[in-house]
Specification:
alpha+beta, about 220 residues, single chain, 6-stranded mixed beta barrel, elongated
């Protein structure tokens, strides 16, 4: 079960790029609090605090008890955020108000456990295709991660959403046939096999030419 974390927010009177730059220079991140039929509120968050939270295992699914100075206190989740593609720091965060008694639909990270039999014994390679799965649950029941044990997976086998263990606290929304991870033959090995086959075919062709002898 999740735990709520308190986070302070300051109301923002100024808008625009220049105001946002000044906030970031002061170690703050501009944000918007919205949802549940209430008016949107422009706020700023502590940059280090919100960055640390988004990079934590629970990430954007962490429930925040957002306390707006001089205003409301509301449980919220980070629904979206923008990151500077060059410097890597947060530019903006959207915070969605949530009702703890109503289900939410969120994406949860996949956590791979172990190494497959196909990789250990058959020369395969475990390849993760999708790293998140969509679930529906009450906010406090949203799992931190979905564990996928691949130790028994042989070469050529896979794990799909339909293979995940069911849970009473949440249901899967992703397509049952959606591929999560499979054990495949490494591409390098495939290229080497193809190269060897080409060599063998070439040698066989040369041998056949030699047996024919010179043309008359």
């Amino acid at each position: 079960m999740q735990q709520q974390l308190d986070m302070a927010a300051q109301p923002r009177a100024e808008r625009g790029k220049n105001a946002a730059r000044r906030l970031r220079a002061a170690g703050k991140v501009p944000a918007i609090l919205y949802g549940l039929g209430k008016d949107s509120v422009a706020v700023s968050l502590d940059g280090k605090e919100i960055t640390r939270l988004l990079q934590s295992p629970s990430g954007h699914n962490q429930i925040l008890n957002l306390k707006v100075s001089g205003g409301e206190t509301a449980p919220a989740m980070a629904s979206d955020w923008q990151v500077d593609p060059v410097r890597g720091h947060l530019l903006h965060v959207d915070m969605r108000r949530i009702d703890l008694s109503q289900p939410v639909e969120v994406n949860v990270s996949i956590h791979i456990i172990g190494v497959s039999q196909g990789t250990r014994e058959q020369g395969g390679h475990d390849e993760v295709v999708n790293r998140e799965v969509a679930v529906r649950a009450l906010p406090m029941d949203v799992p931190e991660k979905i564990e996928v044990d691949v130790t028994a997976m042989a070469l050529g086998e896979s794990v799909r959403v339909e293979n995940l263990a069911a849970a009473d606290q949440y249901s899967f929304l992703s397509r049952p046939e959606m591929l999560l991870v499979h054990c495949v033959t490494p591409k390098v090995a495939e290229e080497e096999v193809e190269t060897e086959e080409e060599i063998v075919e070439g040698e066989a062709a040369e041998t056949a030419d030699d047996e024919k002898g010179p043309e008359e």
